[in-house]
Amino acid sequence: MRETASGAGDPRPARSRATIVTAATEHFLEHGYVGSNVDRIADEAGVSKRTVYNLFETKERLFRAVVESTTDIAEGFARDLHEGPVGVRPLEVELRELALNHATAVLNPRVVRVRRLLIGEAARFPDLAREYYRRAPALVMDAIRRRLERYAALGSIALPDAALASEHFAFLVLGATLDRALFESAATAPRAALEARAVAGAEAFLTLYGRSLGA
Amino acid sequence: MRETASGAGDPRPARSRATIVTAATEHFLEHGYVGSNVDRIADEAGVSKRTVYNLFETKERLFRAVVESTTDIAEGFARDLHEGPVGVRPLEVELRELALNHATAVLNPRVVRVRRLLIGEAARFPDLAREYYRRAPALVMDAIRRRLERYAALGSIALPDAALASEHFAFLVLGATLDRALFESAATAPRAALEARAVAGAEAFLTLYGRSLGA
DNA sequence: TATTAATTGCACTGACTGGTGTAAAAAATG
DNA sequence: CATTTTTTACACCAGTCAGTGCAATTAATA
Predict the structure, then answer these.
(1) Are B66 and B28 in contact (CB under 8 A)?
(2) What kind of fold does domain B10-56 have according to CATH?
């Protein structure tokens, strides 16, 4: 009678679920919701179609499971991104690193594909898009804000509006690059250009909010 | 024998094309490419399905026509956005106006929906997404750059890297708002918040590149 | 090994949909 | 008004696909 959570139980359903979600994720990312085919997903998961329907009642439920799993993962990354110590190295060095980490994380091809999927399905699944935004991009913004506030507490920078400042940081660093990446599937931007912009963004942020230069 | 371009000729095909493209645009924006239904598009256009197929050979061709038309329009807007005179009013006032115009144009709900569509179909139609990006967002960025360069020529601001500076301007002004708008279908952001950010972005830009304060 | 639960294979249904063929109606044009 | 071109109405085809039913098979578990 114990099925949920703990307890060993038959390991097969869990295993199947996992491989199906993995295959389905790839499939949905590639073809979108309507363009995806449950038969093919089953094949690619190495599982019978019937098993898919035994474990997920409908295509929509499967899609929701995929998005949920992806969101969970993203949330995890977002939560402990930018968590390291603060104030051990020169401010500009740490900000540059923060910028590069941020850019690397958000511009990661898989992450960009997830964004494309959710944005593309925003009309069909508004709740999913909204929740993803809340639990990934918004969380990342929060992590940045918290880190910047630690710098502010140290007196390195001045933050009249911490939320606004973190938005400025984030989009100075990767705004233009991300915008382009959403439209251009192929890995267009050479890594160097991306990094140059990230560093320039960090410098601009420092000019804006640094104590030594600003007000 | 004269069919293309000038010459009167039977007005019906042109009229049909126009109404079909209009209806199809709405439909594709709402349901995406695969989710759209040619029969329904015909109905909504008040036209027989056969007429659709007489004027556009396939669903894909129709979709391409829709995107092309949308891109044309966007290109037009982008081209003569930010064209007015420069240097007649105080710099900060003009920059604030530039920011508000920029934000209003890019965050326009229709524009956001087009972005969603193209981003969502980027895997299926990479060429369309790329071309849209080139002829709309990139063009807007160019218009901003040109305008900023005129301020630089007047000596009001200093632009070591005009392209980078225009990216900074654009994304300081609406980066965070746009990112959110892509995920949240409903008109979430109250106009006031949008405007506050735009103005704050313009001020930040001025801090960064203004001659009076910066280097 | 015996029991139980999960998985498979596969055929099948019903709805949907892109695209075509055709003959008649409607609307331009001269 | 006569001619020509476009549009319509409508039936139709073929392929696709979500979802089901079921008997046989396979793999956990005790």
Answers:
(1) yes
(2) Arc Repressor Mutant, subunit A (1.10.10)
